[in-house]
């Protein structure tokens, strides 16, 4: 960024005379001349932090919520119970299905013994073939009845398990919209769980920038997350994913950038900014062929809601002029309006403020 500073603002140190009221002694004011930058600034797009693994848990059955074992912010393990729905009716159905299985097995035992008895009588020629066939048919029907009721009991037992909501993976509970006594419905969210060890930043960029990212022309990207890291986070190109689809309305492409696992304090929904280096392949529009005007950030004066710099007039006297700032560029800052190329800016605003 030091080289960008040298290219964008050529410091032409000069001494301008200024007079204090009632004094003819000149006070030196160090200045520099504002010139357009010879290179475009790195562009940025607004982004959002999201979890790579983020699950919204809901019920598969209807019932009243009778237990909530986790609250927002709790860490949970895979398979841990998080919520429970009233399952008394389902448990009764499961018990009834189990009783029907027991009854069918008892009938099967009777049919099996009868079939064995009929085979012995047939061997002694006490009964005919038709009686033996009837006994065999009843025995096979009892077997099929047991299998059918076993499947029905298994379905009832499986359905009773739907009344317990468990964590699909280890993570953090993000949001719990349900409360005790709520009526759970299929598809109605009960809570969300996300994995804090796998986070990413999602942004939408233009088609031209997306093509440059696919070709790897930007090298490593930089991610800025206010409140989490004091400096920008460098992300290699291997951690950047450009989706193959384009939004039909905005004509933008979604870009996903994986964050380092060592980064702490990141939560889904945080605001982030994705920086794209214009000097590494992102073409600037023709209207922006002339670079922006940059001034040192140290010369900016902030008074209440006013932002300005001290500009020297024709007599060399520094006058405070209001400006509108743009993007930062290292120790420089872009000026969108208020100064022009060729203006001389006081490098020491405190000293310039004392000159009358």
Question: The CATH topology of the largest domain is what?
Answer: conserved putative lor/sdh protein from methanococcus maripaludis s2 fold
Write down the overall geometry: rod-shaped
Structural class: alpha+beta
SSE pattern, N- to C-terminal:
HEEEEEEEHHEEEEEHEEEEEEEEEEEEH
- Provide the β-strand percentage band: 25-35%
Residue-averaged pLDDT: 82
Provide the domain count.
Answer: 4
Binned, the helix content reads: 25-40%
* Largest β-sheet summary: 7 strands, antiparallel
Number of strands: 24
Please, what is the oligomeric state?
Answer: single chain
Report on this model:
The chain is α+β, with helices and mostly antiparallel strands and 356 residues long. The chain has four domains: 2-40 and 291-353, conserved putative lor/sdh protein from methanococcus maripaludis s2 fold, CATH 2.40.420.20; 43-52 and 198-283, Elongation Factor Tu (Ef-tu), domain 3; 59-86 and 163-194, RNA polymerase II/Efflux pump adaptor protein, barrel-sandwich hybrid domain (OB fold (Dihydrolipoamide Acetyltransferase, E2P), Beta Barrel), CATH 2.40.50.100; 88-160, Orthogonal Bundle (Helix Hairpins), CATH 1.10.287. The protein is 25% helix and 33% strand. The chain has helices at 2-8, 88-123, 129-161, 207-215, 349-353; strands at residues 15-16, 29-33, 43-51, 54-58, 63-68, 75-76, 81-85, 164-166, 171-175, 183-184, 189-194, 199-206, 221-224, 233-235, 240-246, 252-258, 271-276, 293-296, 301-303, 306-312, 318-322, 324-329, 332-337, 344-346. The strands form six sheets. The protein has a seven-stranded antiparallel β-sheet. It has a four-stranded antiparallel β-sheet with strand order 4-11-9-6, with no helix packed on it. Strand 13 (221-224) and strand 14 form a beta hairpin. Helix 2 (88-123) packs antiparallel against helix 3 (129-161). The longest helix has 36 residues, at 88-123. Residues 54-192 form the Multidrug resistance protein MdtA-like barrel-sandwich hybrid domain. Keywords: Signal. Residues 1-20 form the signal peptide. Belongs to the membrane fusion protein (MFP) (TC 8.A.1) family. Residues 201-278 form the CusB-like beta-barrel domain.
């Amino acid at each position: 960024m030091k080289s960008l500073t040298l290219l964008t603002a050529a410091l032409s140190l000069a001494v301008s005379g200024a007079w204090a009221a009632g004094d003819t002694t000149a006070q030196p004011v160090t200045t520099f001349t504002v010139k357009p930058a010879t290179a475009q600034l790195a562009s940025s797009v607004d982004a959002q932090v999201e979890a790579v693994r983020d699950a919204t848990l809901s019920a598969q059955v209807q019932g009243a919520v009778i237990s909530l074992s986790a609250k927002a912010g709790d860490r949970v393990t895979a398979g841990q119970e998080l919520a429970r729905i009233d399952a008394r009716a389902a448990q009764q159905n499961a018990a009834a299905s189990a009783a029907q299985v027991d009854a069918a097995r008892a009938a099967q035992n009777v049919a099996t013994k009868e079939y064995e008895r009929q085979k012995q009588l047939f061997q002694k020629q006490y009964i005919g073939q038709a009686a033996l066939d009837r006994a065999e048919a009843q025995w096979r029907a009892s077997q099929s009845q047991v299998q059918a009721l076993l499947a029905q009991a298994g379905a009832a037992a499986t359905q009773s398990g739907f009344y317990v909501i468990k964590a699909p993976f280890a993570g953090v509970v993000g949001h719990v919209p349900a409360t005790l006594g709520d009526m759970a419905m299929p598809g109605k969210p009960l809570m969300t769980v996300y994995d804090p060890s796998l986070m990413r930043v999602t942004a939408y960029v233009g088609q031209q920038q997306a093509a440059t990212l696919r070709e790897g022309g930007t090298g490593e990207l930089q991610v800025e997350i206010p409140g989490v890291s004091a400096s920008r986070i460098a992300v290699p190109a291997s951690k950047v994913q450009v989706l193959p689809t384009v939004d039909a309305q905005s004509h933008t492409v979604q870009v996903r950038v994986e964050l380092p696992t060592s980064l702490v304090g990141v939560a889904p929904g945080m605001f982030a900014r994705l920086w794209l280096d214009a000097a590494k392949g992102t073409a600037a529009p023709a209207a922006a062929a002339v670079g922006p005007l940059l001034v040192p950030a140290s010369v900016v004066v902030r008074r209440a809601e006013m932002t300005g710099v001290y500009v020297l007039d024709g007599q060399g006297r520094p006058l405070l002029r209001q400006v509108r700032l743009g993007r930062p560029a290292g120790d420089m800052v872009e000026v969108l309006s208020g100064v022009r190329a060729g203006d001389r800016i006081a490098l020491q605003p405190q000293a310039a403020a004392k000159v009358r």
